[in-house]
Amino acid sequence: RSTRQVVKQLTKFFPIRTCTLPLTETKNRYRVCLDYHIGRCPGPCADKISVADYDEIVRKVCQFLSGNTDAVVKELTAQMEAAAEALDFAAKYRGTLKDVQQAITTQNMDSVSAADEDVIGIAARTDIACVQLLRVRDGKLLEREHYYLNDADPESLATALSAFISQYYQNAVFVPKTVVLPIPIESVELIENWLSEKRGSRVGLHVPRSGRLRKLQTLASKNAEILLTQREQNVVYSSGVEPALVELQELLELKHPLRRIEAYDISNLGDRFAVGSMVVLEDGKPASSEYRRFKIRSVEGQNDFAMMQEVLTRRFRRAIADDEKFNKLPDLMLIDGGKGQLSAAQAAMKAFATSRLPDIPMIALAKRIEEIFVPGKSEPIVLREDNPTLHMIQRLRDEAHRFAITYHRQLRQKSLSASVLDEIPNLGPKRKQALLQHFGSIEAIRAASLDGLLSVKGIPRSVAENIRKHL
Description:
Layout: H1 2-13, H2 34-37, H3 51-65, H4 69-85, H5 91-107, E1 117-124, E2 128-137, E3 140-150, H6 157-168, E4 178-180, H7 188-199, E5 204-206, H8 211-238, H9 243-251, E6 260-269, E7 272-282, E8 285-286, E9 292-295, H10 304-320, E10 332-336, H11 339-350, E11 362-365, E12 372-373, H12 388-417, H13 429-439, H14 442-447, H15 450-454, H16 461-470
Parallel strand pairs: 1-4, 4-5, 6-10, 10-11
Antiparallel strand pairs: 1-2, 2-3, 6-7, 7-8, 7-9, 11-12
Helix pairs in contact: 4-5, 9-12, 10-11
């Protein structure tokens, strides 16, 4: 949210694109969006601005974000004055300059003075700690660095922090006037004297309890905590766990890892041969031996919602009955469809509310614009088209669809071959299959000539004549 606000403010006085369209230096032919029409983007997607001019805007943004606001203000002032002398339209530069100065004023609102400070935050786990250091120069936050302390004892962070400060400033080119700490450390006076000697003037170590420095210190500690969490996730990734599974778990705010995901789909054409499928992803990989398929028994007509309820009811009844084919329970259920299918699935699972089944989370993936619907949330989750987590969910959904429609076709083919062809003498399963594969349907076989039937491998004249006679 904060990042979006920063980008929104930046585009007021530095019109830069916020889209991710793949652009080239020339021949961009996209349609400009609303940002172009309201002056928030110069339209590089449609070659409305030269590469050199756009690079100049980007350079100013980089200057501003790096804290070099004085240079930006000076440059905008010079541009405004030059435009005024040339009787050009200088109001644009004047408005931009005013916005930049306002942003700088907001940035420095809490600053008492243009101070040089290093603000330190720390977070720890059982065997590792992370130190985040924020560099404040002339009252502006310019840089941040982080360091990991191995074998750090969470019960002795003061000792670890003292050791870090001694090591960090040993070869430091610059020592600020103030070093802000998260907790009191050992040998404060000794370290202060040593830092003062390196700086050439008095240096103070402070543990703030309120005010601007306290806010900065809290920010540093929160950053350290985030960095530790990211490091833990990277360790998970490197150990072979699918990153998309971790991201999906976080996206859905689930406590337990997604070791097993089951996806469900319904396939029906007309009133006959309606089927359901269950496909399984275990540790990010398809587990084909765990796939299950269902003939729809209790639903008449094309009612996908009722069919989904039947499939889930049968699947989990067999789980409760300790059926070894269904006794593994999923960590997440994926339903093919939108809000309607998700509601139907929820209704089916409510019937097991008083059973020993745990509360199994579920989501639905709608095909139209690949929206992820989550129970209890009015708005769907929409991921970028290139998001690996979305790709994983799509593959699983598509696999459920493939498995369902394959079973549906098998039943339909079996029904066709088990009808009128069964009445023909000397026409066994292999010959029936050969005929259906060659002609595609009973109607095509009926319309075939004697020579056409004889052209099928394995069909002798006597059988071909029987086919012509019976059909």
